[in-house]
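hey so i finally got around to running the thing on that chain from the lab meeting. sorry it took forever, my laptop kept dying and i had to restart like 3 times. anyway pasting the input first so we r on the same page abt which one it is
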Amino acid sequence: MKLKISSTITLIDDDLDLLDLLTSFFKQRGYKVNAFNNAEEALIEIENKRLETDVVISDLKLPQMSGMEFIRRIRRSLTSLPIILMTSEGSVETAVEAIEAGAYDFVLKPLHIPQLLISVQRALFLNE
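ok and heres what got predicted. didnt touch it at all, straight out
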């Protein structure tokens, strides 16, 4: 897989420890990282083009706006941005709903971080 040198990942999660862990993990691998603890702020920044991102990793359960609502709203303007949803409360129905709403992938918590990395790499490769 040939990826552009400095892909940017946007992380959205209200668990600040996980946000820090994922930020460190991806930065150590050469990615640029934007981290948000709420989806609404991330949505505004992305839609207003105040930050560039190549892939979004978002928690499903967030306070003000869910990851599912984030996908539905961002798909109105950015149809090809890959979005990976994470959740600790996964069901087949939720996964299907997420994919139908436009999620690229759906991963369960506790995260297997190498598996998440593979999902990110695939999303970036397919979105080139």
